[in-house]
Automatic annotation (TrEMBL):
Superkingdom of the organism of origin: Bacteria
Name of the protein in its database record: Type III restriction enzyme, res subunit
UniProt-listed Gene3D superfamilies: P-loop containing nucleotide triphosphate hydrolases
InterPro entries: Helicase/UvrB_N, P-loop_NTPase, TnsA_N
GO molecular function: ATP binding; DNA binding; hydrolase activity
Domain TnsA endonuclease N-terminal: 791-856
Species: Lentibacillus halodurans
């Protein structure tokens, strides 16, 4: 039976869901509301001005996909529709993602489908979920809190524009994990919203948004009943009604509020005696918060499982393991109370660090971005794990501190000193063993004890000044570098300048080893740094097991080294400047005087496209010409808006931004009577927007276009502020001015001292062209992006219809003085709509500057045909 269910436990539906979205993005987006598309375009991670990272933006894409395209359906319903290719999944292809994200034939059979569907449905029904429940899994350091805030802002913008739509949240309740500090969630309150909200909606959001932060147990919830756009940040203990779980003792019964059997005389008059009142002020406050929540409409619940909830604790919170005190039961209690109050929970959106709980994948995961991907894509530091055997405590600390000081010392990153966290299992261990040993070792290395900071939660060892120092470790003013801690690995502690973690003794909880290890992986600076983890061999074995259970990784995966190396790329003087012609287009509306009556020529309109026609065929097979289809015009059955004289004038005036009085005059003086126009519009609403308004526009305005060409001198490279640009590249794809191969052609190229190519075809193209006697100069420009070069081409993205910047690969000056702009592109990308949009814009720009633009396929370069671009140009 275990083998039979193994497929269901390990089935990663979120991979297939993402694959469907990627393949059908254009069709899916056409079903979105315009505001949703605008919100996505503003945050698109491919835009150099956008703030969100790739995993944050991809998760936002899936969030809006579930909301707009799948209409907030539950995950088991989405899976059922996906398998049966219905309700939006008709275009699903029969393949999916296999191991290593390779495309494979999709092999789920009906038995496997039944296993997965049964597990998903059981999961939802067993925990009485009347609301959709989604899990977004993004590993620590990829920005779950910012993503959560962005999703809430999106909900409020849509809820304001479409207040009657039941799928948008009018209010948001944000839960931190049980028994954890809420400091990390304060970012929702302090975050600069302009980074993720389009500017035209920012003032409205800042004006109407109300944030309630329940930081301590004495804080009441002061929301206005039935109000909108509230964000309540709390945890379950500060919200849920008190419930008595254990029987009271005889003494407690004596002094507590009495209870009486149902229908007794005392029970019937309980309200007179106040028997149902809370027993203490604490219970009264908790009841107040809970009741306030039930008076808010269309509530969305956002659960930040944060960076430290793994294993059994996460499984309980996500509902995989039954527990009376679990977060899931708390949310269900809120949902029931809201239903009784006439409102509802729109959905529960969980943000976790992993999609795994031991051998299982959470069935309701809709997006996942793992630990290894975050390290490989430089969202986290790289890690080196050091294990030690047969060492005493002071020996271990001496080795660790010497190694840390040798590698990092006092070299600041972003102005911050590097820190080493040393974890003890008990306060006594810190006080009696670790702190004296660290002081002794620092003295041996001529390092002052002022570098030590102790934070153990005991006022005898940790003063208020120490806590203040701890809270400002990530500030340039902090001089602390050796931090001694107990249990701070799991409390949402974020310190980007933490470069090392040391854990010698086995902790009480095995998961603490993983939690402590991940504390030092947060990224800092523009270049990927490397952190060091120092463990006893016993703790190293524990880390291996926990990585497998929670991330399906091993230590080798965690510390796998990237092929890329760091390079400091400097500008070679003198700076290269190129003269280009910038073409500016100006379109002006010129108002015309309407002297003649307007003829709308309704007889020329193809009205068939607006008719609702029913076709009836007798029988399944059209056997002969006598058995013809019968057609019935049901246009009168269409749901149309009925305009009056007044509302028609107002609608046209709104579209054309014109005087209502003038619009009425034009309509009354038209060849067709006002009533005839009204007849056509009320019968075919679309006719107003497809025919009447465009015709009026053409009669009322002329569009005059002006082209202006300005000659500008642009810098191929902007002067870097710190004297160089930091790049990460594969050494096999890097060339520099000191390379002997290029010594004879240095005068032809190298406006930068180092060129970091993206692919072998790019490198080969450069080597082929620089050796040609047909060229005078060749510059590699594709390695520079936003803010580093003025040599870029603006184009309109065909998917989002927004203006983007494109940086071509090469700029070549031929011996005859003509300039070429060349793009080296993979064969499979040449027909891509975005590549074609770039090509169209580049050709227009090049033509204005009397240059030529062309794309060469990577396969042609590898065949040795690079110089073909120099011919006939």
């Amino acid at each position: 039976m275990a083998k039979k269910n193994e497929f269901a436990l390990d089935f990663a539906f979120f991979n297939y869901l993402r694959q469907f979205y990627e393949q059908n993005k254009g069709t899916i987006r056409r079903n979105y509301r315009s505001l949703s598309r605008k919100f996505l375009d503003f945050n698109d991670s491919s835009n150099p001005d956008s703030f969100l990272r790739v995993p944050q933006f991809e998760a936002l894409e899936m969030y809006i996909f579930l909301k707009e395209y799948l209409d907030n359906r539950k995950v088991y319903q989405i899976f059922d529709d996906w398998y049966h290719k219905q309700n939006g999944f008709k275009k699903r292809d029969d393949f999916g993602l296999g191991k290593g994200e390779q495309m494979v034939l999709f092999g789920i059979d009906h038995k496997q489908y039944k296993q997965v569907f049964a597990r998903m449905k059981k999961y939802a029904e067993e925990f009485a979920q009347e609301y959709p429940n989604y899990i977004f899994s993004l590993t620590m350091g990829t920005g779950k809190t910012i993503l959560m805030a962005t999703c809430i802002f999106y909900e409020f913008l849509l809820a304001n524009k479409f207040p009657k739509d039941k799928k948008y949240c009018h209010n948001a309740l944000v839960f931190a994990p049980d028994k954890t500090v809420l400091q990390s969630l304060k970012e929702i309150q302090t975050f600069d919203r302009s980074k993720v909200v389009p500017p035209e909606y920012l003032n409205w959001l800042n004006t109407h948004l109300k944030i309630h932060f329940l930081e301590d147990t004495g804080t009441t919830l002061n929301t206005i009943d039935r109000s909108k756009f509230n964000i309540i940040i709390s945890n379950t203990q500060k919200i849920i009604l008190k419930r008595q779980h254990k029987e009271k003792s005889e003494v407690e019964k004596l002094f507590s509020t009495p209870s009486y059997s149902h229908d007794s005389v005392y029970d019937q008059n309980a309200d007179l005696y106040g028997f149902d009142q809370p027993e203490d002020e604490g219970e009264l406050i908790e009841n107040q918060r809970f009741l306030k929540l039930t008076r808010l409409e269309q509530l969305g619940i956002y659960v930040d499982e944060a960076h430290h909830s793994f294993g059994n604790a996460l499984a309980k919170d996500m509902g995989l393991k039954k527990a009376k005190t679990s977060l899931r039961l708390t949310i269900n209690e809120i949902s029931k109370s809201l239903e009784e109050s006439g409102t509802s929970v729109i959905g529960c959106y969980n943000y976790t660090g992993t999609p795994y709980a031991g051998k299982e994948i959470f069935p309701e995961v809709v997006y996942a971005y793992g630990l290894k991907a975050a390290i490989d894509n430089q969202y986290l530091k790289e890690a080196t794990v050091n294990g030690y055997s047969n060492t005493k405590s002071i020996e271990f600390l001496r080795i660790v501190i010497k190694d840390f000081w040798k590698k990092y010392g006092e070299n600041r990153r972003e102005g911050l000193l590097p820190k080493l966290a040393i974890f003890g299992s008990k306060i006594e261990e810190i006080q009696n063993e670790l702190k004296p040993a660290v002081e002794q070792i620092l003295q041996e290395l001529n390092i002052t004890n002022d570098k030590i900071l102790v934070n153990v939660g005991d006022s005898k060892l940790t003063t208020n000044d120490d806590i203040r120092e701890f809270n400002r470790l990530d500030s340039p003013n902090s001089e602390k570098q050796f931090v001694l801690l107990v249990n701070k690995g799991r409390e949402g502690w974020n310190c980007r300048s933490l470069f090392g973690v040391a854990l010698y003794r086995k902790p009480r909880s095995k998961i603490f080893v993983l939690q402590a290890t991940m504390r030092c992986l947060r990224a800092i600076g523009n270049i990927q740094e490397k952190a060091n983890v120092y463990l006893s061999n016993e703790n190293k074995t524990i880390l291996e097991d926990e990585l497998e259970q929670n991330f399906r990784l091993n230590i080798d995966d965690l510390q796998s080294k990237s092929e890329n190396q760091r390079y400091k790329v400097k500008l070679n003087p003198p700076p290269v400047k190129v003269k280009v012609n910038k073409k500016k287009k100006l379109h002006m509306l010129k108002e015309k005087q309407i002297t003649d009556e307007i003829d709308f020529e309704f007889d020329k309109v193809d009205l068939d496209r607006y008719r609702l026609v029913q076709t009836v065929q007798e029988g399944l097979i059209k056997s002969n010409s006598m058995n013809r289809n019968k057609e019935y015009d049901l246009t009168n059955e269409r749901d149309t808006r009925q305009f009056s004289h007044l509302t028609l004038v107002a609608e046209i005036a709104r579209y054309l931004n014109y005087s209502c009085i003038e619009i009425e005059k034009i309509l009354r003086n038209s060849k067709q009577s006002f009533n005839e126009i009204l007849y056509y519009v009320n019968k075919y609403n679309e006719l107003l927007y497809d025919w009447i308004i465009p015709r009026l526009f053409n009669e009322m305005y002329d569009i005059e276009s002006y082209d202006k060409i300005e000659e500008q001198e642009i810098n191929l490279v902007k002067e870097p502020e710190q004297g160089y640009y930091e790049m990460s590249a594969n050494p096999n794809l890097v060339v520099d001015v000191n390379d002997d191969y290029f010594s004879n052609w240095l005068d032809k190229s190298f406006h930068l001292d180092t060129y970091c190519f993206d692919s072998q075809p790019e490198k080969n193209f450069f080597k082929d062209i620089i050796a040609s006697d047909k060229i005078e100069k060749i510059y590699f420009t594709g390695m520079l992006t936003h803010g580093q070069s003025e040599f870029y081409i603006q184009y309109i993205d065909p998917e989002s219809n927004t203006v983007r910047s494109y940086y071509p690969d090469f700029l070549i000056k031929k011996s005859d003085g003509k300039w070429l702009i060349i793009e080296v592109k993979g064969d499979n990308k040449i027909e891509d709509p975005i590549v074609q949009a770039k090509e169209k814009a580049a050709k227009e720009t090049a033509s204005a500057s009397e240059m030529n633009y062309s794309i060469i396929a990577g396969s042609e370069v590898m065949k040795g045909n690079s110089t073909l671009v120099l011919d006939n140009r």
